[in-house]
Structure formats: structure tokens, C-alpha cells
Amino acid sequence: MKKTKTYQEVIGETIEQMRNEKGWTQEELAEAVGSSQSAIHRIEKGGQNISLDMIKKLSEALGNQILSINDSVSQSFRIRGGKELHGEITINTSKNAAVGLLCAALLNTGKTVLHRVARIEEVFRIIEVLESIGVKCHWINRRRDLEIISPRELKLEDMDVEAARRTRSIIMFLGPLIHRYAKFRIPYAGGCSLGTRTVEPHLKALESFGLNIDAECNSGFYEVTVNQKMLNATDRYIVLTERGDTVTENVLMAAALCPGKTTIVGASPNYMVQDVCFFLEKLGVKISGIGTTKLVVRGRPAINADVDYYLSEDPIEAMSFIAAALVTHSEITLLRAPIEFLEIELEVLKSMNMKFEKTAEYVSANGRTRLVDLTIKKSKLVAPVDKIHPMPFPGLNIDNLPFFSVIAAVSEGRTLIHDWVFENRAIYTTELANLNVKVELLDAHRIYVEGPTNWRSAELVAPQALRPAVVVLIGMLAAPGTSILRNVYPINRGYQDFAARLRHLGADIVPLTGI
Questions:
Q1: Could you give the residue ranges of the DSSP H alpha helices within 236-379?
Q2: Half-sphere exposure of residue 246: CA atoms within 13 angstroms, side-chain side
Q3: Which of 69, 280, 420, 498 would give a disulfide with 285, using CB separation of 3.0 to 4.6 Å?
Q4: How are beta strands 307-310 and 356-358 bridged, if at all?
Q5: Of 111, 258, 261, 296, whose CA–CA distance to 178 is shortest?
């Protein structure tokens, strides 16, 4: 039986990891907190009781919160804004690709190694669910890569329901699980608070594989039954009425274990879908049309392979840093930016007078994704002539739209932003008014933002949606004085060490260590 770690051991491991990430020796950390190297050694090995005062000192020295009485929901950031950023930052791998690939790993009974997986809350929640049903997940190579081994028999009855309810990605278990069970249940999907995000497109798309769901029985679960005979069909033609990313991924995963041909019309060609396609190809699934809206999949009767896959870089994180540079009137360089998924955004910003330089293209570690290094120059922005609105890829990315609201706040003139996809995400933009941004809400989907802004610091609770929360944080970087952003779990859902990486660029931002 595996021994449960004591709280001293867990805290010690956390401190050691933070120290190594900072590049410090035990002696250097001891000097920073007024202790001895031997005491730090004992703390890291879990062999010494540690006071709250010492935890506070270590948190401040390491620039990260070590302990919270509750969980990461209660973490807050203190931002002293109005400072220019400088330097360069390497773009991390994609959060949305990671969660799709974690679900796709259920298709493989061999060993899957995903390289450079983002260590973010959304990923942790899916890992918790996977481990609870018997999947072995191990961080390897200094906790940069994730090794996954899925057993032939899962323990769905032991699923961590609380973790599952905190992520919308749980819906992508449907595609893999229909090949294992004639009847099963998964909890209702959670995630961002962005209004009602219907699962109907998933249910409709997976009907061709024999899936039927009772989502209205008020049990708190999707009650799934599968007509196993329909899984043996050799030729499927599926038209997606909504070009959704997770819907497309779900159908791809269902098709991967069907030996016949599955044609998907109206598929999303977005970056996370392409990552899933590239991964399935490494598992021996044949897919044509990657990067287009029509995919043809020829699956396999079984998949048992040892496979390594390198995730692609995150265009949404890249856009976050572009916005941070523009809003703080800074020059920074983004290394490994996935240009294919930023071209429309850059063109819109170019029309707003953004100055930037880019290198020649090179290829990501997955051998497929096109990358460049981007240098964002200090720019005097103007409002665009036309409204800014998202479209399915290759249009302006739906997740990148919120960043244009805070960019519009430093642009001369009035910008109309039309967020037609989500029911209430535009409403979150009004939070910027607390930082003295002139925001006019026309309806639940349209806002006017007028710039430039005479920024004002504030203490706010982060919006409970990922991108709007980051937008508020970026605004605080521009606002002179001290701002507090509380309950930053939504940011931690999608960004790894975001505060530390902003500090690397010169931002004055620290997690609050009050307990």
C-alpha cells in the first residue's frame, strides 16, 4: 500500500521545486530567509516542522505562494502597475491541446508520453479524473513530460466527480469510452462561467457511433448507452452543425477505434484539433484533410502502441503577451509563436498601427506546427475602422477576442467589439471600468471601448472565466499604483506560472501569501 505523504513532506517538495525553478542553491535560499542550509535541507526533506512565519518568508523569497488554507481559488495577485516590460519570453505549449490529448490517451492501451505539458489547473483536474479511474499518470524528465498508461479495464465507478465537474473537458471522455462500455455515466461538464454551453452538438455528432444520452434525468450525470452494433459500421458521413473544437475532437476520438471510414464535414481546423489529429496519426490512425473543414478518418480496431508526442505552442498565451506589451507600451520578444494561428490577429493589430517584427518560420518539435519569433514594438495605437469580431479558424480566434478589449483601451478612438459566440462574456469586459476604462455595454454580445485610458489601480475579484480574468490582470499591469486581483483560479486553469513569467519581463506582480 502506498504511503501517504505528510504535510511536511508535501510542503518540502513544493519548496524544493520552487527553489530549483529559481536556480538557487539551498545556501542561497537560507541566506534570503535568514536561516541555515541544514535547516532548508531538513524542511525540503519533510523532516522539520515549519512555522507559518517561515512559510511566509520562503514564499516571498521564492516569489510564489507555497500554502493556502483553502485551495488555489483563494490565491490572489498584488500588482504594482505602470511599469514597462522588456526582454523575451518563450511561449508554452497549449492548454487546449493538452486536455484534448489527455482524453485521447484513453484510446491507447500502450504507453503515451506527452512532452512539455502545461502544468496548469485544467490539466491537473483531468489527471485527477484519469488517475481516479485507474489510469497511471507520472510526471517525468524533471516534471516537464507526462507518461500515461491506460489499463484495459477502467474503474469508472471510482471517478473523482468533484474534479470532473470543475472542467468542461470531461465531455471529451465520450469519444474514447463508447468503445469500452455499452453503458456508463460521466458528470455534467463545468469549467468557465460563460453561460449555457450546450452539449447537444456532441450528442448529435456521436449518434452515428450508437451513442445515446439522457442529459435531462436530473441526476447530475450524462447517462450514456451505446448501441454496439452501430460501432461496426464501415462508412460514416457526419455533418457537424456547429464547427466546435471539442465536438470535432470527440468525433475524431470515436472514429479512431472504428476500422471503417468516417467523414467529418464542418470540422474545426483549429490548433488543438490539429494536435489531436497529429497524435492520432502517431497511433496509426489515418487522417486526411488536417487543417481543413473536411476530415476523413480511417481508424483501427485496437490501439496498443508506445508513442511520444510533442505538444504545439499556445497561440492564446502568445496573444496574452502581445496584449501585455501593447497595453504597457513595451517592447518584448515572443519566442516560438505559432504564426499560423496568429496571422489574422496580427493583421487586425497592424491596421491599428501596431509595429512588430518577425523572424523566418521554423517548425515546432511536433514537426508540423509553424513557428516564428515575434518582437512587439512600442506602438501608438488607433481604433480600427471596422468592428472586431471572432470567426472559426482561420478567422480571429474566439479565445483571443477578449484581449482586444484591453488593447482598445490604449487605442485612440472608439472600438466596437462583437462577441457573438458566448452568451455573457462581453459583460465581463465591464470589469475594466473599475480600472477607469471607458466601456459601454450595448447588449450581452457587443461593447464599445474608448481610449486612450487614464488608468486607475483597484482591488477586484477575478472574473470566473479564463480570458476575461487575464484581461483584467493585463489592465492592472498598465495602471499606476497597487492593484489586487483576488481568487485567480480561473487564470491558473489556463496559464502556467503566469505571474512568474510576467516578472521575468519586468512586471511587479507577486502572489499574496496571506493565509
A1: 245-256, 271-282, 315-327, 343-351
A2: 23
A3: 280
A4: unpaired
A5: 258
User: Which cell numbers in the block locate residue 9?
Assistant: 513532506
- Which residue bears the cell 471596422? 386
Look at residue 71 in the predicted model and tell me its pLDDT.
Answer: 47
Joined grid coordinates for residue 390 = 471572432
CA atoms of 37 and 22, how far apart (whole Å): 16
Secondary structure letter of residue 364 according to DSSP: -
- Residue that has been written with the C-alpha cell 486607475 in this structure: 456
Cβ–Cβ under 8 Å, residues 457 and 485: no
Taking the C-alpha atoms of residue 29 and residue 18, their distance in angstroms, rounded to an integer, is 10
Which residues neighbour 438 within 8 Å (Cβ) at sequence distance 6 or greater? 409, 449, 450, 451, 453
List, in sequence order, the alpha helices (H) in 133-270.
161-165, 174-177, 200-206, 245-256
pLDDT, position 74: 58
Cα 139–chain centre separation: 18
First to last CA, the chain: 33
